[in-house]
Amino acid sequence: MFASAMLAALLADALMGWPRWLFAAIGHPVTWLGRMIGMLDSHLNSPSRAPLARRALGVMTLVIIMAVAAIPAALVQHTLVDLPFAWLCIGLLAWPLIAARALYDHVAAVLAPLRRNDINSARNAVAMIVGRDVTRLNDAGVARATIESLAENASDGVVAPLLWGVLFGLPGIAVYKAVNTLDSMIGHKTHKHADFGWASARFDDLLNLIPARLTGFLIAIASGQPLQALAVMWRDSTKHRSPNAGYPEAAMAGALGVRLSGPRIYHDHISNEPWLNEDAHDPDARTLVRALTVYVRALVLLAMLLVPLAAMANVSGFTW
């Protein structure tokens, strides 16, 4: 059932995204969680507290947010599970927790000005999806940052939530999204969040361990250059500062025949990140078009994996 539900969620998101009118009317589950995380951060993460106390309070914050996500989701799923078309109801409830369409739209918003050589508009668009300083990025830097975000968020925003949804249904996808939102808000190695966000960052790493590698394989297969993409992923993925993001990013670098990552600026600080696929050339607008094509193909492959899982579940009676 859960594979059918996640397939329905993916298709709903691919077709509609999260409509602006719906966001204006009720917001979005991530923004709801974000407000609660922000409140806990402001009340519990006091700089006057000792590092160990801040770490303990960070663990408590993680548990609270996970419970807030898991308990209602589990109760709703328990209510729906024996009803006709339960898979469709669960899929529609999981729909806002998939970001496939939003990711495509954000990348396309960078591509349009990049194609017409409007570097300022391209920088403004890429600033919506990356955390680095974009003011000094040239065309290649904008394309590189966008492709990296596309590859990483293909895992975080699509593959990972779907995987945990297939395994545990609505509570699985809800908890994953809660932890991922925690990581994006407080899981930073800054003075403010190094201790308070430690538990959230480590748990997010754990939840993304398998999805990131699966995303790398999907990108490689979808690229039409699987051996090249897999070779770069195998060689360069562990060079990345993240234990997970290096897999889809390195696979995308190999798939497109470009170099990614490398030095970048965060808050006036230069971070000398190693290159992925260092000897390749820099990406441009045409590379970004190819990256979107690979991304869409990878999503199709993912949907094709969900179809037999759903069929087997219907035949065998398994929850999947």
What attributes characterize this protein structure?
single chain, 320 residues, mainly alpha, two-stranded antiparallel ribbon, 4 strands, 71% helix
What does this structure look like?
By secondary structure, the protein is mainly α. It contains 13 helices and 4 strands. It has one domain. It has helices spanning 2-16, 20-26, 29-44, 51-80, 86-94, 100-115, 119-126, 139-186, 198-207, 209-223, 226-236, 246-256, 285-316; strands spanning 260-261, 264-266, 269-271, 275-276. Strands 1-4 form a two-stranded antiparallel ribbon. Strands 2-3 form a two-stranded antiparallel sheet. Helix 10 packs antiparallel against helix 11 and helix 10 runs parallel beside helix 12 (246-256). The chain starts with a helix and ends with a helix.
DSSP summary: helix tally: 13
| Whole-number count of domains | 1
Number of strands: 4
From the alpha-carbon coordinates, what is the Rg to the nearest angstrom? 20 Å
Cα-to-Cα separation, first versus last residue: 5 Å
Can you summarize the main beta sheet?
2 strands, antiparallel
Order of helices and strands: HHHHHHHHHHHHEEEEH
Strand content: under 5%
Q: Biggest sheet, strands in spatial order? A: 1-4
- Low-confidence segments, given as residue ranges, are none
Quaternary form: single chain
How much helix, percentage-wise, in residues? Answer: over 70%
Structural class: mainly alpha
Shape: globular
- The overall pLDDT average reads 93
SSE layout and pairing:
Elements (H helix, E strand, L loop, with lengths): L1 H15 L3 H7 L2 H16 L6 H30 L5 H9 L5 H16 L3 H8 L12 H48 L11 H10 L1 H15 L2 H11 L9 H11 L3 E2 L2 E3 L2 E3 L3 E2 L8 H32 L4
Antiparallel strand pairs: 1-4, 2-3
Helix pairs in contact: 1-5, 1-8, 1-13, 3-4, 3-8, 4-8, 5-8, 6-7, 6-8, 6-13, 7-8, 8-9, 8-10, 8-12, 8-13, 10-11, 10-12, 10-13, 11-12
